[in-house]
């Protein structure tokens, strides 16, 4: 298995957290549970595809645009894996795609259904390249052409609030966020949802889940009750309910059963 993190070019670093790539032979490939991360991703498959398993089994397309998630699903390999994924900052994907990001929530869409001809052309061009570095460079050229500043004013407001959420590890109220943006609660909720994909309340719930994973990394010997209070839950039962909603299992099961239970966000 070969897993790599690649940093974006300076011109895209305020919009993209990083790229990750995964190469794995068929004999190594195993299924994985996908949980909410707080990010929108654009993922490219260069070998065999994955099957998304929720209520039914669904073969994933070659390029997938994945929206914000509030729940979990499983993916199963069908053979060799060769993937490259763009992890957009929570509020930035809306600058690259001509649709409200909340239309992607809990969806994994065929990128060709979103962008048609440009997506097909991009897929063909990437398949003619052979190194990750060449593919990343080509993708960045594509993204820079797509980059639009038409929503810059709203983007700056929401960007400021995402930074606040990160600074306080999600332990901030929706009223405080609206006040920081100089918007009414209703206006802020609408703009935030269009740009991030979730309402502020839903997003804070995802970030609290991710902060719990991060806190467990830092304090692995802390009890679940201590962890719950550290991360802003009312009590341990509250934390258990959120974990079951977002991962399908309890915190105890998650930390005991997952090979590497780390936060993708922090």
Record the SSE blueprint.
Elements: E1 2-6, E2 16-24, E3 32-34, E4 40-45, E5 50-53, E6 57-59, E7 63-66, E8 73-77, E9 81-88, E10 108-110, H1 111-115, H2 117-127, H3 132-146, H4 152-167, H5 174-180, H6 185-196, H7 200-218, H8 224-230, H9 236-247, H10 251-257
Distance between the termini: 24 Å
Detail the poorly predicted runs.
Answer: none
Integer tally of domains? 2
Shape: globular
- Per CATH, the architecture of the largest domain is Sandwich
The name of the CATH superfamily of the largest domain reads Jelly Rolls
The neighbouring-strand order within the major sheet is 1-2-9-4-7-10
β content, as a range? 15-25%
The CATH C-level class name of the largest domain = Mainly Beta
Q: CATH topology of the largest domain, which one?
A: Jelly Rolls
**Helix/strand order:** EEEEEEEEEEHHHHHHHHHH
**Portion in helices:** 40-55%
Count of runs of 4 or more consecutive helical residues = 10
Query: Strand count, sense and closure of the main sheet?
Result: 6 strands, antiparallel
Query: Structural class of the secondary structure composition?
Result: alpha+beta
State Rg.
19 Å
Question: Mean pLDDT, nearest integer?
Answer: 95
What is the tally of beta strands?
10
